[in-house]
Design goal:
alpha+beta; 3-stranded antiparallel β-sheet; 13 helices; 17 strands; globular
């Protein structure tokens, strides 16, 4: 392999590394490629308990990728708390799942990168700096609001996660404002991996290098300036994140090619993934993701050490969230009873299952330690309030 081929290979590898996205537990990476959606979680070949690397489409015109996150805080009219199911990786060392504050105790709210501070102490490590800024803004607004108005404000905040009209408006605004940037990114991709190598082959490396460098610099500067303007439009508070992205694109053409994808990656993270998928691909259904969302809401474990105020806060928040989720799913043709029904029996020896993660057990009774001590349910009996399933080839027999 010649030196020029080695340089080209290194350039390709650098660009492919820009296509990798770190997805944290609870997040959903939603890819829209040629009109079809591909939702993924953090689990993959390169993953651990803190998250995983996911590969996104390397060709800008043929796909968009968005990350959505679950509610990172539980809110009630009286208090705010960290969910009992929060990942330890999302919490500072001094905070445990179930910790919280009454709104009357909150004196100051701040942000440092991804960390949300309450009363000058770390409270939560969010999924992104954008999420931290948004949570801080919402908490300040709620803390300053009259106590009697908070319940209505919080219900509207949770309902907005499923607001298809608001989501469609954000998506349409993003598509219209990034058309020029997308065209420039495609041109830079062609220049970087097609025109520049052809110029080197035809004119030689040293004669072509000044022209290649000048052309790439002009394109990266143009893309960076437009990206800076759009980033301020979509994320007006994220000044630190903008500086980092802007400087990276100025110095690295492969990063500038990903400008549109980087700009939109966190744009829809405040919406529920099911709502995002309903807007981006109206004809597709996602029963597995809908079932997971329902089970996590219905069967969220309580912590023994959780104080009563935090437990009441999480219970209130979960009830409002589930109400909105079930209304959304019902309006889109999903059957709630079927989504919560027991799974097909994987082995004749299995007698029970965890209603949260669907792991099956040979025990007749017990708990699922992976789900915080969730009580097991009989594998062949319907959930309380659900009608019994008929015996067909795809479902286990119902034992009465």
């Amino acid at each position: 392999m010649s030196e020029l081929q080695e340089i080209y290979l290194v350039l390709v590898l650098i660009y492919l590394s820009e296509c990798l996205v770190w997805v944290r537990p609870g997040e959903t990476l939603i890819g829209l490629v040629l009109g079809k959606l591909f939702p993924r979680d953090f689990r993959g070949v390169f993953s651990n308990q803190c998250g995983g690397l996911r590969f996104t489409n390397p060709l800008p015109p043929f796909g968009h990728f968005f990350i959505t996150i679950p509610p990172e805080l539980c809110l009630s009219p009286d208090s705010v708390s960290v969910p009992a199911t929060a990942s330890p990786a999302a919490l500072p060392e001094s905070i445990r799942p179930g910790s919280g504050f009454k709104f009357g105790e909150i004196r100051e709210i701040g942000v440092d990168g991804r960390i949300l501070f309450v009363n000058q102490a770390p409270f939560l490590k969010t999924s992104s700096s954008y999420a931290a800024l948004r949570l801080a803004r919402d908490l300040r607004f709620l803390a300053d609001s009259p106590a009697e108005a908070r319940a209505d404000l919080m219900q509207k905040r949770i309902a907005r996660r499923f607001d298809k009209e608001a989501l469609s408006a954000v998506w349409a605004d993003y598509r219209s404002k990034t058309k020029v940037l997308e065209s420039l990114a495609i041109l830079l991709l062609i220049s970087l991996f097609v025109l520049a190598p052809l110029a080197v082959v035809h004119f030689g490396f040293h004669p072509a290098l000044p022209w290649i460098a000048a052309g790439l610099l002009a394109q990266t500067v143009t893309i960076s300036v437009i990206f800076r303007k759009l980033h301020r439009t979509f994320y007006p508070d994220a000044v630190e994140e903008l500086f980092k992205r802007f400087l990276t694109m100025l110095l690295a053409a492969p990063a500038a090619v990903r400008a549109v994808e980087i700009l939109g990656r966190r744009l829809l993270e405040s919406f529920d993934p099911l709502a995002v998928m309903a807007v981006l691909a109206p004809g597709q259904k996602f029963e597995r993701l809908a079932g997971e969302a329902l089970r996590q809401g219905h069967f969220s474990p309580a912590l023994p050490s959780q104080n009563p105020d935090s437990a009441a806060c999480e219970q209130w928040h979960r009830a409002v969230y589930l109400e909105n989720l079930e209304q959304f799913l019902t309006s889109h043709g999903y059957n709630i009873s079927q989504l919560l029904a027991p799974p097909p029996c994987a082995d004749p020896e299995n007698r029970s299952y965890c209603p949260r993660c669907l792991t099956q057990f040979t025990l007749a009774q017990g708990v699922c330690n992976d789900c915080g001590g969730q009580k097991l349910l009989p594998l062949f009996a319907p959930l309380p309030g659900l009608s019994e399933r008929g015996n067909d080839s795809n479902s286990p027999p119902v034992r009465k």
